[in-house]
Amino acid sequence: MPIVREFLPDVCYHIYNRGANKSEIFKDNKDYGIFIKRLRHYSLKYNVTILCYCLMPNHFHFILKQLSENRISDMMRYLMNGYTNIFNSRYNRSGTILQGPFRSESIDSENYFIHLSRYIHLNPLVAGIVDSLEDWQWSSCLDYVGLRDGTLCDKKEIMSDFKYPNEYREFLENDIERMFAVKNLEME
Description:
By secondary structure, the chain is of the alpha+beta class.
């Protein structure tokens, strides 16, 4: 899919990036906490709705929607420039921490939207970072499956397909085996 640079109101976008040379961009819980705090601040400041997120040691995924034009670009610029400065200061380093500009794709169907949320939420489990979905706190997954009452994400759009949080959890769990099979194929 092409990278989007013109962001339209009321369209959902998959936003993602990873560390330069696949390096860690989050080294400890403090890094994750700093990033989440800044994500909340800039999403409110630039009127960007966070629908889903997952922070991994060397990359991140968001599903975002803006209410006015090109606010995602502004939010991401301030979020990442500020976080890079903090990260560099904490670890006595300089330069970029990311492989390049953030990547973005418009989400053009309800089917893609709901399956992308599953892909994002299963990321830590499939990557082998945790043994259970409940073990990764740096994702909106806990909010969606009813294990945390988070306020960062607007859950209405994703949960419109599910009556209860346990139904979304079943939706996630029904794809775990396939995700592991795909991962194993990629490694061969």
